Predict the structure.
Amino acid sequence: MPQIKKLTFLAAGASIALASQVFAHAHLKSAAPASDSTVKQAPSELDLTFTEGLNLKFSGVKVTAPDKAVVKTGGGSLMDGDMTLMVPVSQKLTPGKYTVEWHVLSTDGHKTNGTYSFTVAP
């Protein structure tokens, strides 16, 4: 194989390997309540589903109420092959817009975080 073809082949292989590492992070796939949704009944739990399995010890959420107070939540647990983080909501949510800040560690060691909001409007 000519030298230039070998270099091109190696560069392509390296690009594919690096790209697969970039996509190896756990990204939020869906949430209940859904992002930017309005729910009539206050949720008793949050279910955040990710694209990869999670490490529960280093994953969690913080929920902020419309008045910027932190909402009490219970300890989270994993479901669906460790891809869904379920967090019980310990206090009654009143009408208004809530912000969920999440942080997770995927089982392969990558950390990701993000936020989304939902509104309670009975």
